[in-house]
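Predict fold of N-acyl homoserine lactonase family protein; 260 aa.
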Amino acid sequence: MSAVEIPTAPRKPGDGVRLFGFTVGHVNMPIGFFLDGEPGEMRAPVTAFLIDHPKGLVLFDTGLGPRFVRPRGTQPDSFIDLEQGDTIDERLNAIGVDPAAIRWIITSHLHTDHAGGNAYFPNATVIVQEREYDHAFHNITDDPIYEISEYDLGQPFLKIHGEHDLFADGTIVIFPTLGHTPGHQSAKIRTDGGDIVLTGDCCSLKRSLDEFRLPNHCHDADQFLTSLKLLSSLERKGARVFPSHDPDFWATIPKVGPIG
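Predicted 3D structure, encoded as tokens:
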């Protein structure tokens, strides 16, 4: 039995770890931001995931946060588009999950479109690679994608080094995928339907992995390419790799009920 029952998706006997996906806003960006040299523009979803584990509820990323919310029915005034009701706390409320029940937030990295909603979860511990924590708290200067007020909230941090098995049972394994930022990480989730890898911005689009294409910006290109090769290895072993910002891929993911 889940630590917190989800009214819209009650557990059945024998259910293991379950994964739910959410759209938490969009960003309108040049495609080259994700694939260096690629022309054109795209409307990319910002995504977050709820992991329903028998020992507690876990989030992977929290999407855009309250500073970007616009009233429903109005037009966005920037490339960031987050309508009222689309934040991660509202997405959870819609399926009957109280944000106060979230125990852990696995943060792929501390950019604003991945950690912006952390404030909605006062009882959660934030899991982050120590090198990402150090960079985000001590080494950023004028990088606007890090907004320290969104993650310096008094929540406890679990600063990890390398791979970390959250519940020591192989169901949620966090591992570094460096390159996009100094301490980027991804997570492999073992569901009844097989392994799913949540990539964060190590793999923004499916083409990033299929073509080993880097974005037009990254902290370390060599590390980034090594991380893509790791994801490719996991995919060859049967894991489903979920890119974080791919509108075509995201259109295939169930928005009601568990993914896996």
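The first strand starts at residue 18 and ends at 30.
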